[in-house]
Amino acid sequence: MLEHEFASTGALERNLVERVCAGDVLARCADLHPDRIAIVDGPRRLRYEDFDRQVDQLGHALLGLGLAHQDVVAVMARNCIELLLTYFACARAGLVCAPVNLGLRPAEIAWCLRDAEARVLIVEAPLRDMASAVLAEELPLLAHRFHTRSDDPADAAEFDDLLASGSSAPLEVEVRDRDVVQLLYTSGTTSNPKGVLTSHLAVTMAGLSGALALHGGPGYTALVALPLFHCAMLNGVVLPLMIIGGTVVLAQGFEPQQAATLFEAEGVHLVVLLPMMYGLLIDHPALQGRSFPGMRRAMYAMAPMPHERLAAIHAMFPNADVVLGSGQTEFTPATCMQRPEHQWSKSATWGTATAMTRVAVMDEQGRLLPRGQTGELVYRGPQVMNAYLHMPEESRACLRHGWFHSGDVAHIDADGAIWFEDRFKDVIKTGGENVASVEVERCLMEHPEVAEAAAVGLPHPHWGEAITGVVVRRPGSELDEAALMAHCDARLAGFKTPKAIVFVAEFPRTGTGKLQKHLIRIQHKDLFQR
After folding, report:
1. Is residue 176 part of a domain?
2. Are 433 and 495 in contact (CB under 8 A)?
3. Is 502 inside any structural domain?
4. How confident is the model at residue 154 (pLDDT cuts 50, 70, 90)?
5. Per-residue confidence (pLDDT) for residue 1, from 0 to 100
6. How many helical (H) and strand (E) elements, i.e. helices and strands, does the chain have?
7. 337: exposed, middle or buried (C-beta count within 10 Å: 0-12, 13-18, 19+)?
8. Considering only CA atoms, which of 64, 52, 91 is closest in space to residue 75?
């Protein structure tokens, strides 16, 4: 065996030369594009050179608190510059950033902070009351707390003080490729959330894959309205933009007219929204007939959309590819993306595997299945998580047979397009038949007066589980159960037709907008028992 050429080089020197570190992404862009705008946050604009310098400062300051390698820094904030500064500073300093899911209750957030053994909590000033409720819980390891800037003159700008205390000299500490860079908690359904430990290598490779898919370069601009505490925005949008020297425009939540204003004012090329948000855009009275020709890509997630909705989005963004992307926290997104040529012909699919991902379908015995056969979606690629925090058995289980197990039921066609059929836990077992909830949901969504739809199985004395459609009407609609049942009867096999339709004003959702079917089942569990 040949000896490594760097055998006599010091460990830190060699690490700085060859490592994969998410924090180094900014240094490269600052070298190439120092004066380009990296982040727009309301009236605040941060150039790459300044962003890179402040990341070094904050990293030095955090280490100056006495934090050790891989200690956890939690951030409780909406989309803001401070959250991204903290993320990249932790990356460069060898620390772990844990953005807090703001959709959780204070007691749940406190549980996550204890589970993570967080040493530092950075709080956006408007969230002080929520943070106070969290801090009322027992958090024995939390040693430091800082507030971001505030319009309230009585509120100390403690984060700015922390930032100012750090040296602006380059921060150079050893960071290994599989060191953890982020700790994100998946939304709990029947138990506490799971902490997902993800490495520098994973998020960087996912970022490179995403950058390839953008077909963009310096100045490519994305609106980030979905929360940064979710992997879709943090890893699927921000990292790719930082790699190519693009601009991230931050919005704290989604409001249609504000989004439309930002599309034009900031020259937005990319937007990622949930289907319901696109519905709000195209249905908004003030936006009727408006189009945004500068948009190049309008991405959506969670679920396919009916052709009528897709046509309306194409009309609003006439020069954009309207494509679905998919992924999950445990396997850094995106894992699948619709190719532009499939945005109409295969709009009901999840697209094909992204550049660094291998996707297959597996049966319950661990055998890979040929194209066209249905089984569980499994993945291979460098963007897989390190593990679930403090959950070794669950970590081993999801990596059995040498593949990451997604829990999704699907088949892959001859073009490599992935046809999602259901989550294993959401398949409805009715009268001895298995019915994919997504098939029923697609049918419900095809009705022009349906804004959102979910299909669940509810306990039934005869059927075991009765297929039930839970529906949000479009504004002004008076759609009734009989009309929607007739619509389903004409399109679905008899055993797939809902036994009942329930109309609701809104769905229970996680902090990232994901529909919580388990809560829908709980809310309506007695429907057929009355």
Report:
1. yes
2. yes
3. yes
4. low
5. 45
6. 17, 25
7. buried
8. 91
Amino acid at 407: G
With CA atoms as reference, report the closest residue to 270 among 311, 229, 325. Answer: 325
Tally Cβ neighbours within 10 Å of residue 127. 17
Residue 108 lies in a domain: yes
The number of folded domains in the chain is 3
Compute the distance between CA of residue 15 and CA of residue 18 in angstroms, rounded to an integer: 6
Reduce the DSSP state of residue 145 to 3 states and report it. Answer: strand
For 468, the domain range is 429-523
Rounded distance, CA 409 to CA 430, Å? 18
Exposed/middle/buried for residue 484 (C-beta within 10 Å: 0-12, 13-18, 19+): buried
Residue 335 backbone phi and psi in degrees, to 5? -95, -30
Q: Does any domain span residue 4?
A: no
Written as one string, the DSSP assignment of 241-282 is HHHHT-EEEE-SS--HHHHHHHHHHTT--EEEE-HHHHHHHH
Mean pLDDT confidence for 293-300: 96
The two tokens of residue 62 are: 């955090």
Do 311 and 194 sit in the same domain of this protein? Answer: no
Same domain, 263 and 351: yes
293 and 404 assigned to the same domain = yes
Indicate the pTM of the whole model. Answer: 0.84
